[in-house]
């Protein structure tokens, strides 16, 4: 699969989603 | 008839040789095998891999003896509610978890193999309710989803060394019912689940929060998918799913397991690998560990797949004593526990 299929990929997806999530 | 149908597949040398019978145990007092599992039992400084067998009214612990024989160490009697399944707790010693109920799980219990307080085997109630899914986690923890008419509760409970339940942690529930859980390997604080409307949900389960981080669609072709395993690599979340209700198609055959890569940042996904049922087989009840999957098929055979190759690597036909009813990996994929309805359990080296 290519990045264009899946959109921009982040190695730190878990930390970034945790920071964005409402507490 | 079934054996004849399977012969062409068994003639493939790889499949014939990849499972080797190591030993067999038979519970002569049981005629209603429900589940089988393996557990580490540590006593007097030594650690042994033991087998746990469950029938509707009791659960037994077996330890290895000399000459590939097994001896029953202890049997817990469970009362009126039938045992539905054994819930393995990864990397845990001297502790087994069981789910009891009728059509669905109504009760979860710990079975402590050995209590240092009074040198005894004991059991204690962990949770009651309309429990839809339960999974044993590392560090003596257990996650479950349960429903009332109004709301869903997703909760992690943990158990102390002495067998007492510690305080639980509540996770933010999605709107739809959670049907299965999987720990994200290598990420202690990440947990995924599959839901009744075919979504993957991701939680953060650190000590402070139980945030629901993301909900991602699996796709409409595979209703009620069940997650078995999850791991993160190169910024993608890989999830191993089984598809108990997927329809057979000419292009894909009869799908048993898929590995899907999700981008958690965008919720987009793509299929990575696809494992089909052997031709002419239907139905499955699967168990996944690492890159290996095992399932009992409706023919009474057990099939084993390499999920990374997308290939069936072994097929164990029904034996002369009857069909297989249970297939579970022991603590590693080196050992497959294969159970028959009469309480016979065979250990195969894979």
Tell me briefly what this model is.
The complex is a heterodimer of chains A (23) and B (350). With 23 residues, chain A is mainly alpha-helical. In chain A, 52% of the residues lie in helices and 0% in strands.
Helix content of chain A: 40-55%
CA radius of gyration of chain B: 20 Å
Number of helices of chain B: 2
Largest sheet features of chain B: 8 strands, mixed
Largest sheet of chain A: none
Overall mean pLDDT of chain A stands at: 85
> Mean pLDDT of chain B, nearest integer?
86
- Overall, the morphology of chain A is elongated
Q: What is the succession of H and E elements of chain A?
A: HH
| SS-derived structural category of chain B | mainly beta
What order do the strands of the largest sheet of chain B run in, or round the barrel if closed?
16-15-14-13-17-18-19-20
Q: What is the helix fraction of residues of chain B, given as a range?
A: under 10%
- Coarse structural class of chain A: mainly alpha
Total beta-strand segments of chain B: 27
Radius of gyration of chain A: 11 Å
| DSSP strand tally of chain A | 0
What kind of assembly state do the chains in view correspond to?
heterodimer
- End-to-end separation of chain A: 33 Å
Q: Considering residues with a beta carbon less than 8 A from a beta carbon on another chain, report the largest interface and each chain's count.
A: A-B, 16 and 24 residues
Low-confidence stretches of chain A: none
Query: What overall geometry of chain B do the principal axes of the alpha carbons give?
Result: globular
